[in-house]
Structures are given as structure tokens and as C-alpha cells.
Amino acid sequence: MGWGTPDTYYQPEKFGLSIVAETDQSGSYEFDMFVVWQDVNGNYYWATDSGCSCPSPFENHTSVAHLTADSASDIMREYSNWYDERYFKYESSHSEMLAKLMAL
Q1: Mean pLDDT by 10-residue block, N- to C-terminus, for the chain (104 residues)?
Q2: Which of 19, 77, 79, 90 to pair with 104, CA 20 to 30 A apart?
Q3: How far is it, in rounded angstroms, from Cα 28 to Cα 34?
Q4: What's the CA gap between 65 and 54, in Å, rounded?
């Protein structure tokens, strides 16, 4: 990842996207993220990524094809599945994410 090779997380505008919801349930020097994007036509996309401090989040997501296109209700289901599989350290972040997803 670099400014010469944009990714969907740090330069979503290069793909006609904007981030509308995101959460990270890790801390310190690692990440475990669920992110939702919206394109200029109102379509939604989502992806997850996790790792340590060495890679950047979503550095390999260099195309919209690396994201999953879905409806708002399907994204809510996928987020619930992702959340249920893990111990979420930050309950307020979970509540904020749910509120953003319900607003889609």
C-alpha cells in the first residue's frame, strides 16, 4: 500500500467510495475491523481485515472488487455474525456501529 497504489480504506475517494461505518475491536498494536462503504450511486460494500502493527488495515484492498456488495440488511446480518464470533472489547463502539448500520 502506498500513495502510488491507493487502497479502499485510506483513499476511498479514489474508488468513488466513502466510509459510512467502521469499528475496530482490537487495541494497541493490532486491528480487527469491520468497515462499510457507500458509492456515489448509493450502493453499499463491506469488508473485514485484521492484523498486527506491521501491515496497514485493508492495504490489499486495492479495488472495489475486493469488497463485498450487499444490501443494508445483509450487511447488518454479516456484522452480527462477525461480532458474535469474537469478544468485543469496546461496547460503546459496538453500539455506535449498530446505530450507523440501522441508519443505512
Answers
A1: 77 97 85 95 97 89 96 94 67 82 92
A2: 90
A3: 17
A4: 24
| CB contact at 8 A, 28 and 89 | no
Beta strands in the chain (DSSP E): 17-24, 31-39, 44-51, 68-70
All structural domains of the chain with their residue ranges: 12-102
Task: Please give the model's pTM, rounded to 2 decimal places.
Answer: 0.88
CB contact set of 40 (below 8 Å; sequence gap of 6+) = 16
- Exposed, middle or buried: residue 36 (CB in 10 Å: 0-12, 13-18, 19+)? buried
- Where are the alpha helices (H) located in 1-104, listed in sequence order? 72-84, 91-102
